Every structure is written in C-alpha cells, then in structure tokens.
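pinging the channel bc i need a second pair of eyes. not urgent but kinda urgent?? the chain im working w is below, pasted from the shared doc
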Amino acid sequence: MANSIQRIFAEAAATYELVNRVLTLGLDRRWRRQAAGIAAAGAEPGEWVDMCTGTGEMAVYLKRLAPEGTRVRGVDMSAAMLAEARKNPEAGNIDFTQAEITALPFPDKSVDLITMSFATRNVNLSREALLRAFSELHRVLKGGGLFVNLETSQPASPLMRRCFHLYVRLLVIPVGRSISGSNAAYAYLARTIPRFYAADELAGIMRDAGFGEVHFRHLLLGAVAIHEARKARG
C-alpha cells in the first residue's frame, strides 16, 4: 500500500499546491501558517522536523519562524514531492530527507518539534498503522517535545458533516483531475477524507501512542482541526 501511495503522490507532485489552493479557496495556506505559528510558539529551539513534508510548504513556514540556530528538516517518503520542495527558493537552508514515517533516521529523544499537515490520512492505512507512526514520532521527540498536526476532521453537526462530505464527493475528483491530470490521486483523497477520525478520536490515538498532553482546536466549523500533543518530560 505504501508503494501505491508513493505512485499516487508522484503523479500529483507538480500541481499539488495549486490543487490545494483551489479546493480550499486558499484557506489551506492560512491554516498551515496558523499551525506553524502554534508550533513555533510552543517548541524549544533546536531540531524541528516537518513530517510528510510534501512540497515543503510547512517547512518553509517553520523556517521563517525558527529562532537562530534552529535546524529545520523536511521528511517525506516521496522522491517526487521532495524534488518539488527543493525548487522553492526559500528552501535552501532546509534539510530534506526521504524516509518512511515508521522508520525515521533520527535517534531517540533528538527532536524538539514535529509538524504534519494534511498527511495523517495517508498514514492511516489502519488504526494500528497510525498508532505505529505516532509512536515513532513520540520516540524521536525529546522530553517536553511538541507534535502539531493539521488535518481534515469531522464536523460535530450532522448537517455540516453531510455538506462537507458532499463537497468532497462532488468537487475533489473533477477539480483535482482537471488540474493535475491524475484521477487516482484525487479519488484516493476523496475516499480518505470522509472516513477519517473526528478530532477527539484522533486525540485518543495520540494518547495511546504515549503523548500525555493533547489538545485540539477546530477550524472551518469542524472540517479541519489542529492538534497539539506534547511528550512528557523525563
């Protein structure tokens, strides 16, 4: 399954950011900046990692906010996505690494901050797979380290949830296909969004992975959520 996801995102890499802008009416950029601001305000300087970085947009936002002496890294399993990330003129001082999220090339307790944006659904091949991924993030974080996750969620209101799922069903595939030329990538996206966890369920998986402090805030009437999870000190 991981190889098929790699192929899907290789097809969509060149137009990935443009499709995101169109489908969210530009709000995805604002949400990433908000999440980056939360992350930078809550993390110690040192080693910051944007996980499943894709085209590196979130890593660039982190770099803009990083204190002097902080190293920002971007990790992704897709070589095609990382190739797009390296094209960004602001990415020159960001270290990009190709790696799987469940086997990170970092020592235990070596990272101060981890962010992920709109990638957790791609790791969620099953609840167990997501738990393994979150456990790996927990492993590499220092005590007191922060994990900030930005992802689609499920509105609490049944009406809003139906409207959100209808929007996804009617627009994601045709818009994504017309811009990127890839049907597979956006058919996959359209399948995963309605099946993903509500914010409180995702928080529970983070706690099961070892995080002791987990908080979240809703965006767009609950269709998107930012989670903050901190590793206990000691």
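so The beta strands are 47-51, 71-76, 95-98, 111-117, 141-152, 213-219, 224-230. and Residues 158-180 form the longest helix (23 residues). — does that match what u expected or am i reading it wrong
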